[in-house]
Design brief:
Elements lengths: L2 E2 L3 E6 L2 E6 L4 E5 L1 H11 L4 H11 L5 H17 L3 E2 L1
Antiparallel strand pairs: 1-5, 2-3, 3-4
Helix pairs in contact: 1-2, 2-3
Length: 85
């Protein structure tokens, strides 16, 4: 579960999502995998549900790989100052 920082806007695109940090005037683009993870977390679910969503959506992705991906995505978005836990 997380929230966007107050100065961050989000929009869905045909390729995933785009985030705009209005404070720094920087855009970030998320591929469909990262978009699914972020949307799951923004919907109030935890990392475990985000992992399950990836496993359900992408054939051949195991829980261990999905867990690493979720952790990396959350770390990257947090480090960039786009989300708050």
């Amino acid at each position: 579960m997380c929230t966007l920082k107050p100065d961050v806007l989000l929009t869905e695109t045909e390729y995933g999502m785009a985030l705009l940090d209005q404070k720094r005037a920087e855009y970030w683009t998320l591929n469909p995998t990262a978009a699914l993870v972020l949307q799951t977390l923004l919907d109030g679910h935890g990392a475990e549900r985000a992992v399950a969503s990836l496993v359900e959506r992408y054939e051949g992705v195991d829980a261990e790989t999905a867990a690493r991906d979720v952790s990396r995505i959350v770390d990257d978005l947090s480090s960039a100052g786009l989300i708050a836990p």
